[in-house]
């Protein structure tokens, strides 16, 4: 399994206290943004630093780029450095929703070239279920320095997504939102319901088992091959969701399955519908329907 993918609670527990280890608590609620930090303060994995989706993993003041625009890569690098991340650090991120939020930090770390980053499989619930202790103390990070590295993950901008939607690109667009939102039957967060033309629905929750742990690599590979075809080049796959967060979950799952090289559309649905002139479709839709 790739280094930058998953870590078990048992392995993480064995590393607690190591100087190179930095754990990030990414718990967050889109409906109540203060809820995540409240949960963190009530108890977290010992030594964990809180990473706020709105404040640390996004730049909300960026207009017309969706609900959770990426911060500039330099700004994110500096934030990691301020939290003590250096070249020799091992980053572990977790949440309590199967990695749906923590995968964003995992992806962003790779985006700026950080290699040694893993997502805690099963998250906070698995940690507690294993009987491992929690803490309420908040660490005081010692700033470190990260060398500039070549990005390990790439983005796809809205212009290229427009070409995919119009059929002028061979790339495939995977939408991680639940079926009700993709089909336009329910939209709790954005002003327009539906999906981008020619996109394929791949709800991120299907990457997990009943314990909110990732499926085995062979099962994940079978899932994505059934969606994309056995001969698909992962480099031709673009991931989206509502605002570029849960899309990272599908991207991570593909990497766990050995399907490396797919890209993220950070603005996702919320950026697409920012311009009401862009085409929108409703109902079930796949590439097969277009052939």
Detail the topology: elements first, then pairings.
Elements: E1 6-7, H1 9-15, E2 21-25, H2 35-42, E3 49-50, H3 73-82, E4 90-94, H4 102-111, E5 117-120, H5 123-129, H6 158-166, E6 172-175, H7 179-182, E7 199-201, H8 217-228, E8 237-240, H9 247-256, E9 263-264, H10 268-272, H11 287-290
Parallel strand pairs: 1-5, 2-3, 2-4, 4-5, 6-7, 6-8, 8-9
Amount of helix: 25-40%
The tally of domains stands at: 2
Helical stretch tally? 11
What is the residue-averaged pLDDT?
94
What portion of the residues fall into strands of 2 or more residues?
A: 5-15%
Molecular structure report:
It is a single chain. It contains eleven helices and nine strands. The chain is α/β, with parallel strands linked by helices and 291 residues long. The mean pLDDT is 94. It is globular, with a radius of gyration of 18 Å. Helix 7 links the parallel strand 6 (172-175) and strand 7. The two termini are 35 Å apart.
